[in-house]
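Q: What residues go here?
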């Protein structure tokens, strides 16, 4: 059972931060109990599948946020410029202007990649598809839209890594600013 006043969403957020800070492999039960404030019994009551279930639910929670705040608005937008601006603002907010690593990206690079391969692939594939659909509606050819959508994800993920490695969140903000202009540029890829 959760402690009185503690919601599952809070537990998932705490778990997400442990996985971001230590990776899936390094997220020990001690670190998890410290971050959540829950004992082992409570954790296993909430997550009978153990750490794998915890990570799967954290990834699903992240996916839910991106579906609501990034993918759906891109798919449903009628104004490409406004939709791209909203995506950039949402990405900036979610990743705390480059100070927060992408947990999905970390999982993709770690030893647990195979365990969560479907979730990781789905996250990136849906983002790229939603952005490519928007770019198609803005007048780009299918290949141009696909290429720009792929470039956008490469830019965001690469900027997160470089900003973190260089301890300079400005790198991320500049990359997002440049990305907006590239996505909205005329027809050549």
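A:
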């Amino acid at each position: 059972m959760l402690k009185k006043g503690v919601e599952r969403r809070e537990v998932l957020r705490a778990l997400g931060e442990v996985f971001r800070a230590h990776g899936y492999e390094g997220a020990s039960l001690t670190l998890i109990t410290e971050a959540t404030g829950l004992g082992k019994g409570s954790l296993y009551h909430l997550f009978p599948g153990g750490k794998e279930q915890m990570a799967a639910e954290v990834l699903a929670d992240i996916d839910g946020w991106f579906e609501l705040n990034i993918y759906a608005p891109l798919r449903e937008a009628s104004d490409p410029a406004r939709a791209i601006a909203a995506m950039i603002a949402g990405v900036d907010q979610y990743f705390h202007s480059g100070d927060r690593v992408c947990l999905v990206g970390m999982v993709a690079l770690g030893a647990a990649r195979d365990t969560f391969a479907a979730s990781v692939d789905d996250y990136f594939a849906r983002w790229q598809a939603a952005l490519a659909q928007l770019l198609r509606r803005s007048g780009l050819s299918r290949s141009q839209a696909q290429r720009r959508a792929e470039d956008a994800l490469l830019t965001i993920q690469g900027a997160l890594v470089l900003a973190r490695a260089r301890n300079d969140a400005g790198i991320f903000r500049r990359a997002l600013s440049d990305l907006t202009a590239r996505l909205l540029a005329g027809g050549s890829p």
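A: Context that may help when evaluating the design: The radius of gyration is 18 Å. The chain has a mean pLDDT of 92.
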